[in-house]
Each structure stands twice: as C-alpha cells, then as structure tokens.
Design goal:
This protein is mostly helical and about 150 residues long.
Length: about 150
C-alpha cells in the first residue's frame, strides 16, 4: 500500500509517481499560489520581494513565530501561520524597519489590527515585550551552551 508523504492517506490509486494525496497537493498549491499572488499583486519587483522576505525573517527572528497578542502558533512546516504586520503602514509614513515597526500576528489579530481593534500603541508595546522575551530566552540558551562547552 502506498501512502501520502504528508498525511499518511492511502494513495495507491493515484499512479506510480504520486507522493501526495489530492488534499495535500491542493493545500500546497494554494499556499504557493497565495505567496506568488501577494508578491505580484503588490507590484513588487524581485528586489522588493527579497526585501519583504528579509523584513519578515528579521521580525520572526526578533519576536518569534507566535502571535505577540494572543500567543497562537502553528506548525512551522505549514506556511500560513503568523504574518508580519507593519504597525504603522508604509503608505502612512511607517518605516520598513522590523525592529521598530513590525508585529508578528496570527490571522485573527492581523484582521483586528487592520480593523482598528488593536491600537498602534498596544502593538508597539506587545512587540517590544515579545522582543525582550526572545532576547531573554536566547541568553539562557547561550549560557546553557557555554556551560556545556566548559565541561
């Protein structure tokens, strides 16, 4: 019996070269199409797309991968979890600086932010707190690794 590499469903009826069930193929296609659509829809050049990805990566590195408001997180294997939100939109004069103008939010909190239910001040405070917590955790990891090296 042949099984899907992602979910383990029986795929013996899909043909020799199939590795995934139709559900998993559709999910992967939707996620990659969504990423391409976002880049094209915003009129981003390849250079700007790289900047955008760098902005997201730095924000996730500083604040972690969980929502800074509610703490929601999703398996990192699935792209489609938390997003990086500009606290002050670039169109309104906000800088594209992940240290001062980024908030990692779940889809629900991201919608709340766009609908004005989360304040700019509240998002800035939550982002600072998340960054400080991430720094504290990283310091503990570094101390632990250094203590193991001296043994």
């Amino acid at each position: 019996m042949k099984v899907c590499v992602d979910c383990g469903k029986d795929i013996s009826n899909r043909g020799r070269s199939a590795k995934r069930c139709l559900d998993c193929v559709n999910i992967r296609d939707r996620l990659t199409a969504k990423k391409r659509t976002i880049i094209v829809a915003k009129g981003n050049s390849e250079k700007n797309a790289k900047k955008l990805n760098s902005f997201k990566n730095i924000a996730h590195t500083l604040q972690g991968s969980s929502c800074i408001v509610c703490g929601w997180s999703i398996n990192s294997l699935i792209n489609g979890g938390c997003v990086v939100h500009h606290i002050i939109p670039v169109s309104e004069g906000g800088k594209s600086d992940p240290k001062t103008n980024a908030a990692v939010l779940c889809p629900n909190c991201h919608a709340y932010a766009h609908n004005g239910l989360l304040t700019i001040r509240g998002l800035k405070l939550a982002a600072q707190k998340a960054t400080q917590e991430k720094i504290r955790i990283n310091a503990k990891i570094i101390d632990f690794v250094r203590s193991r090296e001296t043994m």
